[in-house]
Amino acid sequence: MTHLQTAAAPETATAGSGPRPGPPGPAPKARPPAARRRARRENLAGYLFMSPWITGFLLLTAGPMAASLYFAFTDYNLFDAPRWIGLRNFTDMFADPRWRQSVDVTLWYVVVGTPLKLAAALGVALLLNQKRRGQGFYRAAFYAPSLIGASVSIAIVWRAIFSDDAIVDRAQRALFGSDVGGWIGDPDWIVYSLVALTVWQFGAPMVIFLAGLKQVPRELYEAAEVDGAGPWRRFWNITLPMISPVLFFNVLLETIHSFQIFGSAYILGGSNGTCGPADATLVYTCYLYVQGFENSRMGLASAMAWMLLLAVGLVTAVLFWSQRRWVHYEEDGR
């Protein structure tokens, strides 16, 4: 009996010590050389297809941005070698009264022109969202100004329309009996012709608004009508909340575009370095162009460009921060 217990003891201890480790699993197989060569060829083909974009980005975007950042701290006139002057361009810029005038004109244009353009785009999109005959024609007709409105030829035509004794001046005399001598030559009225040209180009945000309106479920409007909600209440409580992401996108995009306005303001105001009578259309980019290419102060123009970039970045950050209060997304319940 003692002999049996002694013989069984090692087996019991071995059984209680846990399962024996099994044989090691198969080692991960290394990729064969043919697969590695095929992967390298695929990566090389991808980089070759991307090389035009990468080259263009480095030569036309990243390179000029780095150069302008360096020029912002130099005295550079496009002909002589740049000379390092530190922050003098920024101090000269802040002390320049015409620079402050350009900031005021640009802010006024952004605050007035952008909401009017978006309001026109949303209003026309609401009309085109209804089922009517000839919708395709009207959509194309309203979108067309966005394709040609930013061209130099349209700005020249716009300048002729609002000049002295032109069609707008004659209509104003006939309808209201007032004679201001044309909006182009009046410092108080020329900026309104610039805003009118901007509002006329509402086609691009209109198409985006129309796409957002198509996504609003009709059941919501039907339920609101059953509850007795009128058109204004349906618009305020259903349409605006449902298209708020689209509205935010348009506000962000059009605000950035408004800060970058140049061609129409320069042509309407004239090309003599004044940008309108009494600098009435002296938007920021117009004064930047005057300093860089007419006054040959490219260092100061580079400093102004980077200040504009910082201002647009700040406005964009504020808009993204504010969207938490008025933009509603379905996926997160906001």
Automatic annotation (TrEMBL):
InterPro entries: ABC_transporter_permease, MetI-like, MetI-like_sf. PROSITE patterns: ABC_TM1 (PS50928). The chain crosses the membrane at residues 46-73, 107-128, 140-161, 189-213, 303-321. The keyword NADP does not apply. SUPFAM superfamilies: MetI-like. The keyword Cell membrane applies. Its main location: membrane. Residues 20-31 have a biased composition (Pro residues). Gene3D superfamilies: MetI-like (1.10.3720.10). It is a multi-pass membrane protein. Keywords: Cell membrane, Membrane, Transmembrane, Transmembrane helix, Transport. Residues 1-36 are annotated as: Disordered. Pfam families: BPD_transp_1 (PF00528). Residues 103-319 form the ABC transmembrane type-1 domain. It comes from the Bacteria. It is found in: Cell membrane. Belongs to the binding-protein-dependent transport system permease family. This is Carbohydrate ABC transporter permease. It comes from Streptomyces coeruleoprunus.
